[in-house]
What does this fold into?
Amino acid sequence: MKETQQVLRRAKKEEAFVRHLFFVFSLVAIFTTLGIIGMLFFESVLFFRKVNVLSFLTDTQWTPLFYEKHFGILPLLCGTFLTTGIAVLVAAPLGILIAIFLSEYATPRTRSICKPILEVLAGVPTVVYGYFALLFVTPLLKRVIPSLAGFNALSPGIVMGIMILPLVSSLSEDAMHAVPQSLREAGYALGSTKFEVATKIVFPAAFSGVTASFILALSRAIGETMLVTIAAGSMPQLTLNPFVPIMTMTAFIATVSLGDVPAGTLEYQTIFAVGLVLFLFTFFLNLIARRLRQRFREVYQ
It folds into this structure.
């Protein structure tokens, strides 16, 4: 009896130690996030004391490192959304088709082979993707589009779509694979074909997971740095033409962070203002994903 009580006390102590250890780890994550947010807001406040917020949001020129300075973020936003839009147009249809194939058509052996191979794409360094876009994809596209510039938005957008493809396909496949088999059997019992079951039953039932994969891939594309820094150029201009050089928000942050700009100057503080805008976009995308996930989960529970 005493031995049993000692074992129980020891188990409770161990459980309490593990619980407190996990609590400390969670606090580290929370305080790290708060520190990042605080740094962004503090430096951004210093920036907006010198630059008008309305001018920052509406000016069509971004030349903080030139003699005649303009601080309009619209060209950076345009470049970011242009490359991200191209990437989504590439990754969304391919990712959905791959997910449907792996979930509904592939045998377990084929799925166990293809899925890890596909996920290898997520482990390739983004620098490699950048030089792949610059040295292989761009010359290939110039054979078809002679007016394509050496630095452009089309090439990194396509390669970025390939880069985020594993996020869309793998997470969407996991969501489809988790759909109860009874829903599929009910569809077959009503005379539906495999394609109809996949597109009209499984896909809608897994829509919350598919949406989450899209938002995650979209956030990944918006926050991509090295690929667009290498292949998209460094010319911030307000354009929707994917054949000309552009500059994204992350590319500007990477360029200014190289150390050529003195710390504490207005030019240096621009990276925090741009970083704050980038953070807000990612934050709102995550909120939208959570809202959609909650809404459609209630429908299909």
Observations:
- The chain has a mean pLDDT of 84.
- Residues 198 and 289 are 23 Å apart (CA to CA).
- The two ends are 47 Å apart (CA to CA).
